[in-house]
């Protein structure tokens, strides 16, 4: 199967994909997804540490088990208010930290 070449101003899908492979938008999207998964993992670990099920946590924060599952899977980014409710329900302090970004060399 041959690859289509660029004709005039129209680019092939392969060339578009290559250009996006190292774009700023891709890097930002990747960083945001990584942050969402890291936060999700912290919520899950904290919930498990205190021995609650997703349904029990959901009940304590006024949510549903599927919503907690989506949050823990990194599929949604919780609001600050939701994070406060989660921390309170688990008996944790919510700590937000801003630090200089370590840019990859």
Q: What pattern of helices and strands is seen along the backbone? A: HHHHH
Distance between the termini: 38 Å
Structural class: mainly alpha
CATH-defined topology: 434 Repressor (Amino-terminal Domain)
Kindly report the average pLDDT value. 86
Number of helices: 5
Structural topology:
Elements: H1 13-21, H2 24-49, H3 54-61, H4 65-72, H5 80-90
Outline the structure in words.
With 105 residues, this protein is an all-alpha fold. It has a single domain (13-90), classed as 434 Repressor (Amino-terminal Domain) (Orthogonal Bundle), CATH 1.10.260.40. Helices cover 59% and strands 0% of the residues. It contains five helices and no strands. It has helices at 13-21, 24-49, 54-61, 65-72, 80-90. The longest helix has 26 residues, at 24-49. The radius of gyration is 20 Å and the shape is elongated. It starts with 12 loop residues before the first helix and ends in a 15-residue tail after the last helix. The model has no long low-confidence stretch (mean pLDDT 86).
Task: Provide a compact summary of the structure.
This protein is an all-alpha fold. It is built from five helices and no strands. The longest helix has 26 residues.
Which key phrases capture this entry?
105 residues, mainly alpha, 434 Repressor (Amino-terminal Domain), 0% strand
């Amino acid at each position: 199967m041959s690859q289509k070449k660029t004709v005039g101003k129209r680019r092939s899908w392969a060339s578009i994909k290559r250009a996006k492979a190292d774009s700023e938008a891709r890097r930002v999207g990747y960083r945001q997804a990584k942050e969402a998964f890291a936060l999700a993992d912290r919520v899950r670990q904290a919930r498990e540490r205190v021995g609650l099920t997703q349904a029990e946590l959901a009940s304590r924060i006024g949510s549903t088990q599927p919503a907690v599952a989506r949050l823990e899977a990194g599929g949604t980014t919780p609001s600050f208010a939701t994070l406060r409710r989660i921390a309170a329900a688990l008996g944790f302090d919510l700590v937000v930290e801003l630090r200089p970004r370590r840019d990859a060399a």
